[in-house]
Specification:
27% strand; 6 strands; Nuclear Transport Factor 2, Chain: A; disordered N terminus; 182 residues; 6-stranded mixed β-sheet; alpha+beta
């Protein structure tokens, strides 16, 4: 497996398939090993992440969600593999908006490593997530401030990811889905 990741002659499609499998294994260190040092990730709805370490924090956060990606490659041109993706995870399932579907899920491979991920949600997933976050985020920030940094952004690590899953379950159980102030 290591030789495939470091061999620039390996096809981008094969590298992307291995990357998706590694993400689904929740092995954050292995994911980091497959990402270029200067990689960038622009996931729909989230602040872009730059650099291997910061991207590792991001994937650790979503490992706490027990996320699973169902990726379908639709096109490969040069070093860019494009497709669609359905993300299944405990957070969106508890909130009733799973799966979150990406109409665009594009991965760029350079020197045998993932150099860039760029995504866009479908209109329906974007709307569902936006509406949910508008109601959930104020409640979660008030009830679970340990999940946020001083600027009010998520703290990206695995324990915070697990904490977000617990928080969404608390929110759903408290009937706060209807009343964000509750």
């Amino acid at each position: 497996m290591e030789s495939m990741r470091s061999d620039p002659a390996t096809s981008p499609e094969k590298i992307v398939r291995e990357f998706i499998a590694t993400v689904n294994s929740h092995d954050v260190e292995a994911v980091g090993a497959m990402v270029a040092e200067d990689a960038s990730v622009a996931f729909a709805g989230f602040t872009p992440f730059e650099g291997r370490d910061r991207i590792g924090d991001y994937f650790a956060f979503f490992a706490g969600f027990h996320a699973r990606w169902d990726y379908t490659s639709t096109e490969s041109r040069d070093n860019v593999v494009s497709g669609t993706m359905a993300a299944h995870d405990e957070w969106s399932e508890a909130a009733g908006i799973s799966p979150l579907v990406y109409a665009k899920f594009e991965l760029t491979v350079r020197d045998g490593l993932i150099a860039r991920i760029d995504t866009e949600f479908t209109k329906e997933s974007n709307q569902a997530l936006s509406e949910l976050l508008e109601r959930f985020t104020p409640w979660a920030a008030a009830k679970h401030p340990e999940l946020y940094d001083e600027e009010g952004d998520y703290i990206y690590d695995e324990s915070t990811g697990s904490g977000m899953v617990a928080a969404i379950r608390d929110w759903v159980a408290s009937d706060s889905m209807e009343d964000a102030d509750g």
